[in-house]
Task: structure prediction
Amino acid sequence: MRITPTASWLASAATLTTIAVTTTVTASDLAPIATPEGITLEPLGQAQGYDLGKETASILLRDHIVFADTRGMTLYTYQKDPPNASVCVAECAASWQPLIAPRHADTYGDWSVIRRPDGARQWAYRHKPLYTYVRDLDPGSVGGNDPARFGARRKNSAGQYVGGGTRGSLLEGAAANAPLPADWEPALLYPVTGQALPAGMSVREVPDAEGLVLTDYRGRTLYAFKGDPAKDTAACASLPCPWQPVAAPEAAGPIGAFAVVERTKQGIDQWTYKGEGLYSYAGDLAGGDAYGVGVNPKWHLAAVARYYMPPGVTLVNTPGQGKILATADGRTLYRRDAYILQSGGGHSFRRGNPARPAVGRDIGVNARCEGQCARMWHPFLAPASAHPRGFWNLDRRSDGSRQWTYEGFALWTYDGDKKPGDMNGNDSLQYQFDDEAGTPKTGLRQALDIGTPQDGPPGLYWAIAVP
Result:
């Protein structure tokens, strides 16, 4: 049985989003895109969310992001490989399969192509050839350790049931990770290693910035400005200026790409990054905020790496929900998600619905959307020239067209949105109950099967797609 609620709180939540919005840009163009075509990004381990329970999702930290192939399989480097060469051949290459680069692939930032002993072209990152591991079955796996075994009982990519039992069980029944084979390491984008940083600074993933950016000791996003705002009368249109210079200690000296410049008028020494002064923005009130983007074109994000964004996709800044993904003409993009009704979740809060890529892949392009629903919701299709890159991938539909997916979830637009910033489809729910006579009172009840057996009434809902 399906019930679609029309509760007043849903209507009021949608109404709040009809205020004027602004289209924003992402991480600075001065920072390289993290991945070339054909290289994707995946959060590792339990951050994949192999569970429908929102309680589980709320505690899954995205603290490691790995480079992956188009299937989402983790990429590795081999410590015995010399720079720009591979010694993993024969039996080694049978288990650790080289990531073959297409003919059109070329050097790109930290990415390059090497020639294997057999003449094949292989991707390399920072001069280290890249491989996949045959024992990895599902995205988020490392060294053959499949995160699908955490949480609810479910099928892995080999069709085997794994997991500890019921929703939210996390570690219950799951064996400890097997050690990664010697001399092999996952190729991580995040956390960033090997970069010299001043004391108190760090590199963090800031989703609203669509990339990795510098942050100060408070975790606040940093921005860069070329020149001295005190000498540029157009730099700060209002006083006090919301751009606050990042002070350096008196004895500080150059560190990697960082240097120190004296700001005589302010009476401080200021950190610079790649020759530009560093600032925080007064409108950013917490770690992860990036409200300074687009406020003044003279300032841009102090970005280390930026995420790929397909042509035809933009970020729209909305009240209440912050930045959301949208089409080029401002139509909100949505994902079709699922959860169990007894589980908690902050649906009405900003970023209250953490994306669980495993659930998105289970649902795929089948939104279980019929009748009027199917007439109102439309797949966000990709052009023929599109390729997987970063968190963006492609899923084939039954008619042969390809639909964009983001962090595992197929993307959709909604006819109920009339202008940029409308989110009238957000939190539109369809409950699924198994109420057939004679349903056993024990065991798993699967009124809705999207890959994870469920022990409670499940629901499908539409959620805004956020970066």
About this structure: Residues 8-15 form the longest helix (8 residues).
